[in-house]
UniProtKB/TrEMBL annotation:
Coiled coil: none
Keyword field: Flavoprotein, FMN, Oxidoreductase
The protein, known as: Nitroreductase
Organism: Ktedonobacter robiniae
SUPFAM superfamilies found in the cross-reference section: FMN-dependent nitroreductase-like
Oxidoreductase is among the record's keywords: yes
Domain of life (superkingdom): Bacteria
InterPro entries per record: Nitroreductase, Nitroreductase-like, Nitroreductase/BluB
Domain Nitroreductase stretches: 7-172
Keyword Oxidoreductase recorded: yes
Length: 198
């Protein structure tokens, strides 16, 4: 598939068939996600893969899947054959930027104008979402509500210095309901692109 077709075809799909996704396919997807850039080649990104039914159900509950179902969507988190949890480690970036090749002229860690650990995991997630489409599969994204965040971390045994950023259900697409937010349409190109300054 041409890259431009992969990009245009990518969307959040919230319904999956019961067909499994082969473990080697998941490995290929994550191998591509690992190719994302990272500040100082820190590689603070990591992923948790979940396929066990009881664990998927527990994650779906913590993502308030029932709220989606009440809004007319399918049980797309618990029904997906694979859940991928992207994570980032702010601590890894602080550690990397205290190394001799990254400290400033005073021997100090740089001031972070932007939390690049968020940028980097975003890049990894997008590569994963595009790789999913290229494999003929589909994916979505679900956040973990603040009131369930601690339980989510505990369920997956996530270390304190690592932050999960959400849940990506992956599977074979089924006919789904489009998000009503799409009615907003894409913003005008003139509002999206600014030449030579804002």
């Amino acid at each position: 598939m041409e890259f431009s077709d992969v990009v245009r075809k990518r969307r959040m799909v919230r319904h999956f068939t019961s067909e499994p996704v082969a473990p080697e396919t998941v490995e290929r997807l994550l191998a591509l996600a690992q190719r994302a850039p990272s500040a100082g080649f820190t590689q603070g990104q990591s992923f948790i893969v979940v396929t066990r039914e009881e664990m998927k159900n527990a994650i779906a509950e913590l993502c308030d899947e029932q709220e989606y179902v009440s809004s007319g969507f399918h049980s797309f988190i618990s029904e997906a054959p694979v859940l991928v949890i992207p994570c980032t480690s702010e601590a890894a970036y602080h550690s990397r930027y205290q190394e001799s090749d990254k400290v400033d002229e005073d021997g100090e860690e740089i001031a972070w104008p932007v939390p690049y650990w968020h940028m980097d995991i975003g890049c990894s997630v997008m590569l994963l979402l595009l790789a999913v489409v290229d494999e003929g599969l589909a994916a979505a994204f679900a956040g973990v509500p603040a009131h369930n965040f601690a339980r989510f971390r505990e369920l997956l045994g996530i270390p304190s210095e690592v932050t999960p950023v959400g849940v990506i259900p992956v599977g074979h697409p089924a006919q789904d309901r489009l998000s009503p937010s799409l009615k907003r349409g894409r913003k005008a190109t003139t509002d999206f692109i600014h030449h030579e300054g804002w």
